Amino acid sequence: MHSQNITLLAQKLRAKEFSSVELTQHFLDRIKQFDTSINSFITITEEKALTAAKIADTRISNGEKNPLIGIPIAHKDLFCTQNTLTTCASKMLNNFVPPYESTVTQRMLDSGSIMLGKTNMDEFAMGSSNENSFFGSVKNPWNLEAVPGGSSGGSAAAVAAGLIVAATGTDTGGSIRQPASFCGITGLKPTYGRVSRFGMIAFASSLDQAGPMARSAEDCAHILNSIAGFDEKDSTSSEAEKEDYTAHLNQPLTGLKIGLPKEYFGDALDQEVAKVTLDAVKEFEKLGATIVDISLPNLNLSIPSYYVIAPSEASSNLSRFDGVRFGHRCDDPKDLLDMYMRSRSEGFGAEVQKRIMVGTYALSEGYYDAYYLKAQKIRRLIKQDFVDALSQVDVIMGPVAPTTAFKLNSKTQDPVAMYLEDIYTLSVNLAGIPAMSIPAGFIDKMPVGLQIMGNYFAEAKLLNVAHQFQQNTDWHTQTPTLAEGV
Amino acid sequence: MSLNKQDVQKIAHLARLSLSDNESEQYQESISSVLTLVEQMQSVNTDGVEPLCNPLEMTQRLREDAVTESNQRDSYLAIAPQSENGLYLVPQVID
Amino acid sequence: MNWEIVIGLEIHAQLSTKSKLFSGAAVGFGAEPNTQTALVDLGMPGSLPVLNKEALRMAVMFGHAVNAEIGMKSVFARKNYFYPDLPKGYQTSQMDDPIVGVGHLDITLEDGTVKRVGITRAHLEEDAGKSLHEDFHGMTGIDLNRSSTPLLEIVSEPDIRSAKEAVAYVKMIHSIVTYLGICDGNMAEGSMRCDVNISLRPKGQQEYGTRTEIKNVNSFRFIEKAIHTEVERQADILEDGGRIIQETRLYDPEKDETRSMRSKEDANDYRYFPCPDLLPVILTQEYVDAIRATLPELPAQKAQRFMSEYKLSEYDANVLSSSRDMANYFEVVTQAAKNPKLSANWVMGELSKLLNQNQIDIIDAPVSAENLGLLLQRIEDNTINGKTAKDVFQAIWDGEGTADEIIENKGLKQVTDTKAIEEMIQTILDANQAQVDQYRAAEPDKQKKMTGFFVGQVMKASQGKANPSLVNPILIKLLKG
Lengths: 486, 95, 481
Fold this sequence. Notes:
By secondary structure, chain A is an alpha/beta fold. Helix content of chain A is 38%, strand content 13%. Chain A has a domain of 296 residues: Amidase signature (AS) enzymes. An eleven-stranded mixed sheet of chain A has the order 1-3-2-4-6-5-10-11-9-7-8, with helices on both faces. The longest helix of chain A has 22 residues. Chain A is globular, with a radius of gyration of 21 Å. The two termini of chain A are 23 Å apart. By secondary structure, chain B is α+β, with helices and mostly antiparallel strands. Chain B has a domain of 36 residues: Histone, subunit A. Chain B is 35% helix and 9% strand. In chain B, strand 2 and strand 3 form a beta hairpin. In chain B, helix 1 crosses helix 2. Chain C folds into three domains: 289 residues, no CATH class; 113 residues, no CATH class; 62 residues, Arc Repressor Mutant, subunit A, CATH 1.10.10. In chain C, the strands form four sheets. Chain C has an eight-stranded mixed sheet. A three-stranded antiparallel sheet of chain C has the order 5-4-15, with no helix packed on it. Chain C has a two-stranded antiparallel sheet with strand order 3-16. In chain C, helix 13 packs across helix 15 and helix 13 packs across helix 16. Classes of the chains: A alpha/beta, B alpha+beta, C alpha+beta. At the B-C interface, helix 1, strand 1, helix 3 and strand 3 of B face strand 2, helix 1, strand 8, strand 9 and strand 16 of C. Strand 3 of chain B pairs antiparallel with strand 9 of chain C, so a sheet runs across the interface.
């Protein structure tokens, strides 16, 4: 049951091969069995899930068609879920039970999917290895000594391990794509504004975007169908018409123009990863695509630009965590200042505090022009690179990360080195375009993802391209062998 | 770009973070290395480039002026660290 | 030393919207604490702002009223600082691109001179909540009902040179925003709050001196007093060779002094940057023009019209047009009375006196404008004289009925029957033969003064009802014999 896709599960639920309650129980059992070693969940909502599964079974019996009805899923723990603990993997929100629901989780509820729990992540989505969690690091199901990637590491690991059918993630600088690549699953970061940010705990407002993480492009399409679309509660949500993202999956790729940016294949890239990437591109050629060499000249600037913009916005977004209305407050504050200082430094982990301070500095008097304003100007150059490239090609392909999943604790001593590994993903968020990671091969039994980037609101095209690849390859169907947790 | 200890303490104070001496030193190093990383921006000529704040360059949508929220005080105050008589309580504010 | 006072004002006007600037929570004064809050007003994680259409319209309207450039592209920015009544840890305001740009308005000073005061800008921003300092076992209570209430911050150029000018300016802004219906102008409830920037410089010097900012001076009277007090304080320091520290100060009306608010000075690096949760507000020319077309007549225009249409003096016209309600009241009165000068005198005199004494707003006046108009008609058509009219006015105020009912019930009609008046005068002359003889013996220019005695007697005998314009000629005729 746990390695089948949503379309198949939906058919079987309707054929009464099993009920949603049985399916839900199966995944709950797997979580209990394996997650002690993987640590992909922060909260498991067993009772609520089983209650919801019963309702789902009724809806299925009533002939409702939505393929997500009765499908067990999980949400990254930065989506506010009403009456369910929402921690953002931070001590700051260790006790935070929101009295409201995010738009993404509400839409997933409405579509009939069953939430089994909230997944682990880097604290406040700041990190690329899931080692910055108050609830401990997540392990990569392909190798428990490796990181799952981050920040949506829990979602990626849970899907890869078959603990859940699909999950939501968020991507500010690669946080869906990079863990999807490291864990061998399919992840989509939609166009900025395609999915509502309401109820998503903000990291960097102008970069954050929620998206699906699943075992296939087709599954991602089903989830995107549920969560995409305008939301009047989010001023940055796009009013552009949403599509049926499953409608064009089967379009042939004949004549598809794929751009390969030379900057994505430079020295930083592991040669084996380069080979896997280029092999995948060859597969597309077999499917009728043509390859065009392109250039994204400002790619290198995406790192500095991102590491100014994201911390700056974060420093302001995280000011609301002050111990007054929700979240952690220190014991016995001696005065107001003491309450602020101790609540915040006790509540936030080191990486979060560091980024808050970097952002505070970048916005402070005398530095704003040199940092924040400069970064926003460079951001326009980066966007323009994509606009130019995408006027020549339909999609752009390249690696997601320079390497496969690295070993736990191997890079914690040098965070800047870890920042540099985001080189292939950051620019997409700065430009706001959609991008995916799909499984494209293995190196030393560790999965490698291929990144597919497309034009604004071209999610259907990306999913079509990814789906056609998955119809002709089996990388995405490979599953890790799990050891039972102790 | 490297910061001295006073810089770090000033930033930490602005951000309302309390750092021990030891932490200050660590952050001094790690923040400085981030600032060095972002330094390369300065070599790029961006004269005449309009800053990009929102990738879609959309414009602000407007809400009708209507009261759509009801009183949710009880559920909102229920998650507050400290409250009394419908108020959030904080250590004394001195103007 | 001869000091020149330099004053600039920042006025926060609370816009009269139904809902908050960024949420659908109700706006209102005096509700139970924390019952008018939406998620975004509380800074709840994941909550997002959406801009209120009406607040934007009101801001544009104000821009038109002060002849300002309208910001066709305006941008919301975050002003970052920590305070318990500021839930998000930043105030959403406007910095580089305000909705209202450079404008100006003219104020009329007491001596009748007109002064132009520059408006630097006016921008939309959200209000903070309130800290309640009553003791909760040594803690402060926070009420966030006011959080995210829309404010228009109106910033003047440092063009103002005296406390009187400052008050005239604030009064003018007050009357503009209330005329426009974009602010209720209630200073006691904090709907309009003023921050006053003050500096001194030696007369003739070009550069400005160091300024202080006095926060939240919330009545016209306190503005004047606070300025006097602060000017005196600064002059004392400067004359002793000291230096003014640029700082925020608070005016204490009870002690009539300003004191430093050092707590607010603490590291005020606000780290403004464009709010990434909101997008640039782009206006079309059609939108801006359409709002201009809805502008009501403004105080200055109204005063001009009162002078030309009703031939009122500039002073009367300015007083009557200072509040829209008073101007409307006056116009209704004068339509019925058909005598603008008389109407103006009554509205500014008797009516205003009673309103002030009883602390009643003109909109709630117990004497309706129609009723006062009818009363004045009765003066005009000689039914009663001015003195009687004051008594009738008091009776209307006390709810005894309309002017006509009271005149009728109390028998206050003037005696206009010449025969009756002649008889009355003759009786008085007969009873005062000695005075009549004196009169007849006197020089003509002395005689004029002597008639006063007889007029007084006639009025007393008629209980004030004899029409003075009839009494005089008859009296003189009979005196001359």
